[in-house]
């Protein structure tokens, strides 16, 4: 007999080979009806798999969060069946689950699918789901599988069978008369998929990502537990499209990209004002704790060989040489992809004592990393960007306190920008890493303790978790993820402990006993990439920035040219008060001017006419409001002066 342990800790004995479906049926009829899969020792498995050894068992129902991946996986198989029913001769390749959905790649001799084909395919999928055919698994020999696919003309599947390691089983899953090669698991039948799915778009994709191979059509789709979940996701996509930072960047005249500078930003005046405001804010937050430094952008590759980046990261780096043929110095240099090796050189310059630690070096450093052209995406993924980077050199005894200090700073910065839903995860040792297990054990033990304190200090406001095996090759790290106004999550800040680089470069400090000791190096970033963080902010606020951060805070404009002189007076007073203000004296209708400046997301428009000039007042129009308000000029100036004070300065004034 085998012993099966249930989630409540209870145990039962069963004959070896009993399936999860049989156990669910014994527990209750209602559970048997709801069950779609099982988790054996935490691993999702087919409900009809035999259980042959002692195990922990959970029966997984369709509304279990873990079932969402199965819903999407099963829907991919149904999409492939629908395509082959509708378009005989089409070959299927692979169809994985991805974030928020799935895709399947198809080879169609007649030519690629188009968006016009999607409604027909989706309708056929709904037919197949309604048939409610069971998913059944068979294990075949390699020769059986290849022979079957060859007879069906499925050349890509034959290639996939050949690629399966010799020690792995060849699993085939059938849904009615249709069958596919698959690792599994699947739910019990196609009917369990439900109707909360939608085909989204088509794209081209090379087989195996090789541009020398066949071009396939990739059909992207999404699937959810319920129709309500699907509707919420589609609404979020619509909202995300409206908030797209590339679109808002054009409307607000913030930045552009062009072919001659792929992946680097051309900042316009208003966009650069945003960038500078963010930088100024961050500089104020670092003042008193950090020394701001600047390391060279171009360094000999020898430095990057010592750091390990030339071996670990070379394909993401830009190599540079002098352009002239007659130049004496023909060494190979690299544009820095990160700031850490430069900061170690600054730390090493001059003897350091334990009394000098912790030493915190910060830099708003321009870095360059090669990204494939297809991966670049506006400000979110570029080749040239600025890191709000810092490195703390400290003793092992100070490591936990420094991580907590960084945590408080990161959370405070996010709060100032309106982000209050934060998740902090500890990423632990990856398979490929440097350093001894003892070092990793110590670092992970300290950071696990710190993670617990982060959760405790936040009184449950901050979510915490573990990312097993996701640490950097040189040490464990904290990753900070924030949730924006429409529910999307963005990973921004990091805190990474590093015992490796200081040792590689021979960095040391003189300890209290007079001996040399290698410092712990903590890498930390808050925004990460300043460009990406600005992209996130543009989309989070949909361009409606808080007044203190807006690139153009007030627009002064006129109803009639008779008010031009008064408008100039208002403009000068705002300018003197430190407001980022523009003036519009064009001979255009006021509704036209208001509409134009509202599209450019100017937070406040001060309208001046003959009446306002006589009364020394302004008509204030707030972005997003349909109700203008008449205010005295003195009152309006006081309001603007109060609202343009950044939150960190307000705190400092309140505490003074």
UniProtKB/TrEMBL annotation:
<keyword id="KW-0067">ATP-binding</keyword>
<dbReference type="Pfam" id="PF00587">
    <property type="entry name" value="tRNA-synt_2b"/>
</dbReference>
<protein>
    <recommendedName>
        <fullName>Threonine--tRNA ligase</fullName>
        <ecNumber>6.1.1.3</ecNumber>
    </recommendedName>
</protein>
<feature type="binding site">
    <location>
        <position position="340"/>
    </location>
    <ligand>
        <name>Zn(2+)</name>
    </ligand>
</feature>
<dbReference type="GO" id="GO:0005524">
    <property type="term" value="F:ATP binding"/>
</dbReference>
<keyword id="KW-0547">Nucleotide-binding</keyword>
<dbReference type="Pfam" id="PF03129">
    <property type="entry name" value="HGTP_anticodon"/>
</dbReference>
<dbReference type="GO" id="GO:0005829">
    <property type="term" value="C:cytosol"/>
</dbReference>
<keyword id="KW-0479">Metal-binding</keyword>
<dbReference type="InterPro" id="IPR033728">
    <property type="entry name" value="ThrRS_core"/>
</dbReference>
<comment type="similarity">
    <text>Belongs to the class-II aminoacyl-tRNA synthetase family.</text>
</comment>
<dbReference type="InterPro" id="IPR004095">
    <property type="entry name" value="TGS"/>
</dbReference>
<keyword id="KW-0963">Cytoplasm</keyword>
<dbReference type="InterPro" id="IPR018163">
    <property type="entry name" value="Thr/Ala-tRNA-synth_IIc_edit"/>
</dbReference>
<feature type="domain" description="TGS">
    <location>
        <begin position="1"/>
        <end position="61"/>
    </location>
</feature>
<keyword id="KW-0694">RNA-binding</keyword>
<dbReference type="InterPro" id="IPR012675">
    <property type="entry name" value="Beta-grasp_dom_sf"/>
</dbReference>
<dbReference type="Pfam" id="PF07973">
    <property type="entry name" value="tRNA_SAD"/>
</dbReference>
<keyword id="KW-0862">Zinc</keyword>
<keyword id="KW-0648">Protein biosynthesis</keyword>
<dbReference type="GO" id="GO:0000049">
    <property type="term" value="F:tRNA binding"/>
</dbReference>
<dbReference type="InterPro" id="IPR045864">
    <property type="entry name" value="aa-tRNA-synth_II/BPL/LPL"/>
</dbReference>
<dbReference type="InterPro" id="IPR004154">
    <property type="entry name" value="Anticodon-bd"/>
</dbReference>
<feature type="binding site">
    <location>
        <position position="391"/>
    </location>
    <ligand>
        <name>Zn(2+)</name>
    </ligand>
</feature>
<dbReference type="InterPro" id="IPR002314">
    <property type="entry name" value="aa-tRNA-synt_IIb"/>
</dbReference>
<dbReference type="GO" id="GO:0004829">
    <property type="term" value="F:threonine-tRNA ligase activity"/>
</dbReference>
<keyword id="KW-0030">Aminoacyl-tRNA synthetase</keyword>
<keyword id="KW-0436">Ligase</keyword>
<dbReference type="Pfam" id="PF02824">
    <property type="entry name" value="TGS"/>
</dbReference>
<dbReference type="GO" id="GO:0006435">
    <property type="term" value="P:threonyl-tRNA aminoacylation"/>
</dbReference>
<feature type="binding site">
    <location>
        <position position="523"/>
    </location>
    <ligand>
        <name>Zn(2+)</name>
    </ligand>
</feature>
<feature type="domain" description="Aminoacyl-transfer RNA synthetases class-II family profile">
    <location>
        <begin position="274"/>
        <end position="546"/>
    </location>
</feature>
<dbReference type="InterPro" id="IPR002320">
    <property type="entry name" value="Thr-tRNA-ligase_IIa"/>
</dbReference>
<dbReference type="InterPro" id="IPR036621">
    <property type="entry name" value="Anticodon-bd_dom_sf"/>
</dbReference>
<dbReference type="InterPro" id="IPR012947">
    <property type="entry name" value="tRNA_SAD"/>
</dbReference>
<comment type="subunit">
    <text>Homodimer.</text>
</comment>
<dbReference type="InterPro" id="IPR006195">
    <property type="entry name" value="aa-tRNA-synth_II"/>
</dbReference>
<keyword id="KW-0820">tRNA-binding</keyword>
<dbReference type="InterPro" id="IPR012676">
    <property type="entry name" value="TGS-like"/>
</dbReference>
<dbReference type="InterPro" id="IPR047246">
    <property type="entry name" value="ThrRS_anticodon"/>
</dbReference>
<dbReference type="GO" id="GO:0046872">
    <property type="term" value="F:metal ion binding"/>
</dbReference>
């Amino acid at each position: 007999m085998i012993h099966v342990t249930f989630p409540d800790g209870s145990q039962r004995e069963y004959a070896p080979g009993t399936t999860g479906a049989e156990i669910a049926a014994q527990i209750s009829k209602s559970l048997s009806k709801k069950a779609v899969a099982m988790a054996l020792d935490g691993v999702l498995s087919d409900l009809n798999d035999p259980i042959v050894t002692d195990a922990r068992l959970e029966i997984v129902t369709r509304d279990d969060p873990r079932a969402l991946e199965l819903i999407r996986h099963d829907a991919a198989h149904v999409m492939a069946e629908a395509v082959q029913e509708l378009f005989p001769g089409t070959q299927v390749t692979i169809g994985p689950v991805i974030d928020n959905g799935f895709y399947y790649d198809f080879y169609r001799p007649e030519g690629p699918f188009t968006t016009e084909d999607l409604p027909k395919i989706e309708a056929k999928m709904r037919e197949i789901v309604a048939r409610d055919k069971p998913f059944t698994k068979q294990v075949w020999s390699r020769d059986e599988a290849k022979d079957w696919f060859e007879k069906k003309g499925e050349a890509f599947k034959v290639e996939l069978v050949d690629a399966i390691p010799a020690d792995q089983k060849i699993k085939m899953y059938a849904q009615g008369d249709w069958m596919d090669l698959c690792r599994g698991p699947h739910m019990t039948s196609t009917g369990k998929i439900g109707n909360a799915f939608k085909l989204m778009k088509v794209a081209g994709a090379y087989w195996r990502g090789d541009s020398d191979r066949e071009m396939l059509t990739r059909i992207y789709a999404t699937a959810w537990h319920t129709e309500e979940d699907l509707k919420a996701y589609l609404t979020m996509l619509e909202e995300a499209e409206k908030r797209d930072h590339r679109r808002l960047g054009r409307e607000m005249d913030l930045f552009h990209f062009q072919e001659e500078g792929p992946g680097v930003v051309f900042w316009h005046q208003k966009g650069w004002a945003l960038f500078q405001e963010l930088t100024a804010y961050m500089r104020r937050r670092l003042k008193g704790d950090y020394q701001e430094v600047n390391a060279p952008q171009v360094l000999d590759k020898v430095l990057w060989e010592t750091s390990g980046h030339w071996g670990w990261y070379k394909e993401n780096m830009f190599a540079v040489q002098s352009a002239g043929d007659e130049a004496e110095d023909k060494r190979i240099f690299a544009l820095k992809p990160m700031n850490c090796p430069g900061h170690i050189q600054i730390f090493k310059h001059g003897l350091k004592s334990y009394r000098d630690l912790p030493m915190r070096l910060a830099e708003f450093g321009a870095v360059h990393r090669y990204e494939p052209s297809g991966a670049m995406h506006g400000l979110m993924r570029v080749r040239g960007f600025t890191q709000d980077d810092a490195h703390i050199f400290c003793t092992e005894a100070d490591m936990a306190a420094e991580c907590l200090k960084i945590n408080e700073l990161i959370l405070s910065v996010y709060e100032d920008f309106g982000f209050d839903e934060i998740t902090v995860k500890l990423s632990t040792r990856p398979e490929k890493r440097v350093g001894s297990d003892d070092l990793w054990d110590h670092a992970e033990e300290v950071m696990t303790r710190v993670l617990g304190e982060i959760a405790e200090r936040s009184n449950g406001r901050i979510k915490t978790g573990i990312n097993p095996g996701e640490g950097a090759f040189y040490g464990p790290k904290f990753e900070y993820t924030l949730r924006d106004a429409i529910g999307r999550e963005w990973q921004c800040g990091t805190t990474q402990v590093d015992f490796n680089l200081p040792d590689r470069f021979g960095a040391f400090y003189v300890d209290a006993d007079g001996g040399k000791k290698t410092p712990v190096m903590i890498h930390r970033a808050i925004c990460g990439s300043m460009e990406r963080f600005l992209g996130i902010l543009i989309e989070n606020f949909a361009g409606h920035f808080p007044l203190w951060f807006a690139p153009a805070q007030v627009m002064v404009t006129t109803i009639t040219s008779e008010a031009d002189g008064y408008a100039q007076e208002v403009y000068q007073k705002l300018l003197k008060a430190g407001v980022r203000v523009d003036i519009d004296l064009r001979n255009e209708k006021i509704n036209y001017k208001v509409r134009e400046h509202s599209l450019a997301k100017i937070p406040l428009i001060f309208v001046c006419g003959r009446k306002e000039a006589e009364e020394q007042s302004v008509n204030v129009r707030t972005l997003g409001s349909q109700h203008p308000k008449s205010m005295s000029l003195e009152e309006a100036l006081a309001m603007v002066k109060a609202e343009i004070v950044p939150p960190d300065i307000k705190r400092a004034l309140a505490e003074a």
